[in-house]
Design brief:
The relative contact order is 0.13. β13 (308-316) and β14 (319-324) form a beta hairpin. The model has no long low-confidence stretch (mean pLDDT 96). Strands 1-4-3-2-5-6-7-16 form an eight-stranded parallel β-sheet, sandwiched between helices. An eight-stranded mixed β-sheet has the order 10-9-8-11-12-15-14-13. The longest helix has 24 residues, at 177-200. The chain is 45% helix and 17% strand. The protein is α/β, with parallel strands linked by helices and 418 residues long. The protein has helices at residues 10-22, 25-37, 53-64, 81-89, 103-114, 127-134, 151-162, 177-200, 216-227, 239-247, 255-258, 277-282, 301-307, 339-342, 349-369, 382-395, 405-412, and strands at residues 3-4, 44-49, 68-73, 94-97, 120-123, 145-148, 170-172, 208-212, 231-235, 251-252, 264-267, 288-291, 308-316, 319-324, 329-333, 377-378. The protein has two domains: 3-179 and 348-395, 3-Layer(aba) Sandwich (Rossmann fold), CATH 3.40.50; 187-342, 3-Layer(aba) Sandwich (Rossmann fold), CATH 3.40.50.720. It has 17 helices and 16 strands. The radius of gyration is 22 Å and the shape is globular.
């Protein structure tokens, strides 16, 4: 059973999924391995993720390992209806996702995905795990573990663990090097600017771009915005990250100051109300507001609506213009949701190749190791991270050095000095 917009779109979805697959050689190798070893044979996996072509190739890989997978969308605006149809019709997954579904439909779809009675869960923002713990406690006993792939979701999981609320082990796939160093930095860095350019057709060279948050996503954005000729201003609450931004040559200011002269604002913090009413009231005419944090809470959209005397929806695709009392106009992209997935196509497949390889191998590891894991947040085993990097380098025909026996002995011994 599935709930998708149009099953007739399956043919075009297959073409797009196969196109993405060409840039995902690591996941393809893992799929071949899974098909031979069947590490997930008979396991039921419920996933709440962006329904994109790259995600489809992860689902195919889990299925090759023997899993039965149900999938709900983690963001209504990121769902690709043809991909959802292809997964349901051609690949045999249960898919509950429609582009632009409302809030009630969003949660209904997560409930439907959970009807599989999952052994494992894959989450993107912790909404599925949250729902399990608050409303579907009848299913908790069967869940052996799961994976979370976003900074926002990992923050929520750690809070659940601190309060003793988390009932099964969750692995923070987001925190592994081959995820956050590449997906967050290079994927978000490129795809966010792609979404802004598609939505506005603005020239970024010469603009002042204010980036709220200097984690891996913020660093990637800052690097690429500077490369396009923008003046980059960073806002931060963490003094270490702020210092890092300064030493990389970026201006650092409080949002109270940056809001007055920024041309484009991008939030990537994982927290709420990063851009508030007082900031919006001080912005210059034509300022562009975009969010690449997981949830639509980083820009206070309600405060923006309260300030506006008129709203011109859809002045461009995924761009709404809010007119203030003095005539100034602020442009909100993608309703304050993930601009890189709503206004563009998300991360390039070559980046998601590593993130989803981490997910697939971690699922196989959880199927074996879950009994010995506490109900807490766990790191991805280092050997999985290393294997994914090794496979990616091999797919790029890049070789690296290995330690000689003498070097290995030197690293093992504390007796050898200078």
């Amino acid at each position: 059973m599935s709930d998708v917009a149009d099953m007739a779109l399956a043919g075009s979805g297959v073409g797009r999924i196969e196109w993405a697959d060409r840039s995902m050689p690591v996941l393809r190798l893992i799929r071949e391995r899974f098909a031979a070893d069947r590490p997930l044979d008979g396991w039921r996996i419920a996933a709440c993720m962006h329904v994109t072509t790259e995600t489809a190739n992860l689902i195919r890989t889990l299925q090759a390992g023997g899993a039965h997978v149900s999938l709900a969308a983690s963001n209504p605006l990121s769902t690709q209806d043809d991909t959802a149809a292809a997964l349901a019709v051609e690949y045999g997954a249960s898919v509950f996702a429609r582009s632009g579904v409302d809030r009630d439909g969003y949660y209904r779809h997560i409930h439907q995905a959970l009807e599989i009675g999952p052994d494992l869960v894959l989450d993107d923002g912790c909404d599925l795990v949250n729902l399990l713990h608050l409303e579907r406690t009848d299913l908790l006993g069967a869940v052996k573990g799961g994976c979370e792939e976003t900074t926002t979701g990992v923050i929520r999981l750690h809070q659940m663990a601190r309060e003793g609320a988390l009932k099964f082990p969750m692995v923070a796939v987001n925190d592994t090097d081959t995820k956050h160093m590449f997906d967050n930095r290079y994927g978000t860095g490129q795809s966010t600017l792609d979404g802004i350019i598609r939505a506005t057709n603005t020239l970024l060279a010469g603009k002042t771009i204010v980036i709220a948050g200097f984690g891996y996503c913020g660093r990637g954005l800052a690097e690429r915005a500077r490369g396009l000729g923008a003046r980059v201003v960073v806002t931060e609450i963490d003094p270490v990250k702020a210092l890092d931004a300064v030493l990389q040559g970026f201006a650092v200011e409080p949002m109270d100051d940056a809001c007055r002269h920024g041309d484009v604002f991008i939030t990537v913090t994982g927290n709420r109300d990063v851009i508030r009413g007082e900031h919006l009231a001080a912005m210059k005419d034509g300022a562009i507001l975009a969010n690449s944090g997981h949830f639509d809470v980083e820009i206070d959209v309600r405060a923006l609506a309260d300030l506006a005397v008129a709203v011109n929806p859809g002045v461009r695709p995924q761009a709404d213009e809010y007119v203030l009392a003095d005539g100034r106009r602020l442009v909100l992209l993608a309703e304050g949701r993930l601009v890189n997935l709503a206004a563009a196509e998300g991360h390039p497949a070559a980046v998601m190749d590593m993130s989803f390889a981490d997910q697939a191998l971690t699922c196989a590891w959880l199927a074996e190791a879950h009994a010995g894991l506490a109900a807490a947040v766990h790191d991805v085993p280092k050997e999985i991270d290393t294997e994914v990097a090794r496979l990616k380098l091999a797919s790029m025909a890049i070789g690296i050095d290995s330690l000689t026996p003498d070097q290995e002995e030197y690293l093992r011994s504390w007796r050898l000095g200078s």
